[in-house]
Write a structure and sequence with these properties.
- The chain has one domain.
- The chain is built from three helices and no strands.
């Protein structure tokens, strides 16, 4: 196996693991009874923009739709965590105001 194939395999494996690892974070943010207060929105927004800029780089500089797809999925998961946290926060505020 050539070095290029090894690095592609490692990249793919870790990105699959990373995408799966988002699921518990999304679930935790969505189900948090305290309004997802432990979610650092600034961190997840920064991760989103880092992934989005990688999508742009992959498409514009590398002409690599495959790489762009991986990082689009990562960016979408970041948005899901942000959205789930914001919904949990809204539910928590509504519960406190009721």
């Amino acid at each position: 196996m050539r070095l290029e194939e090894i690095t592609l395999l490692v990249f793919t494996a870790f990105n699959v693991v990373r995408l799966v690892a988002y699921v518990p974070q999304i679930r935790k943010a969505a189900c948090d009874q305290n309004g997802a207060s432990a979610i650092a929105y600034s961190t997840w927004v920064m991760f989103f923009f880092a992934h989005a800029s990688t999508v742009a780089y992959a498409l514009v500089n590398q002409k690599d739709a495959s790489l762009a797809l991986w990082f689009t999925a990562n960016a979408a998961c970041c948005l899901a965590i942000i959205g789930a946290g914001l919904l949990a926060r809204r539910r928590s505020r509504a519960r406190l105001n009721a």
